[in-house]
Design goal:
Number of domains: 2
Order of helices and strands: HEHHHHHHHE
Distance between the termini: 48 Å
Helix content: over 70%
Number of strands: 2
Length: 146
């Protein structure tokens, strides 16, 4: 009896594989809006790390100035990752990756002067243009329909 139940569970799992693979493939490709959102939030995460390490207020000011764009990007990625939980996992991994990349870099503040200066001047339209340009040049992600 146990073998039959185990076999049935195994058959069911194998039968679900194509559906799970299709869902994973669909969520691994990026729409243009998700691609731009990804680039924008990656920029923001890098700025957060630099601003925190360098004890600068540029990140807080950037977030206030670009609040609506940031919220739009977060919503686009929540849709891409099929909900807030998926987005939160992605965002946490992104922040941890950015923090570990900068960990121990004693010259981080000196190397990030241009980033902080750029972020200080970015208004919502400038931020969207920057994210769109970064998204267009990103070859590391799969774009849907291509």
């Amino acid at each position: 009896m146990k073998k039959t139940v185990l076999l049935a569970a195994l058959v069911a799992a194998v039968a679900l594989q194509p559906a799970l693979a299709a869902k994973k493939a669909a969520s691994s490709c990026y729409s243009q809006s998700a691609l731009e959102a990804d680039a924008g939030l990656r920029y923001m995460n890098d700025l957060m790390i630099v601003s925190s390490v360098c004890q600068d207020t540029v990140y807080a000011e950037f977030r206030l100035r670009n609040r609506d764009v940031i919220l739009r990007y977060q919503k686009a990625l929540m849709a891409h990752f099929h909900g807030a939980a998926g987005f939160d996992r992605w965002n946490t991994a992104l922040a941890n990756q950015a923090a570990s990349k900068q960990s121990g870099n004693l010259q981080l503040c000196q190397q990030s002067v241009a980033l902080m200066k750029q972020a200080s001047a970015l208004d919502p339209s400038g931020f969207r243009a920057l994210a769109a340009a970064q998204a267009a040049s990103d070859t590391a992600v799969v774009k849907c329909g291509k």
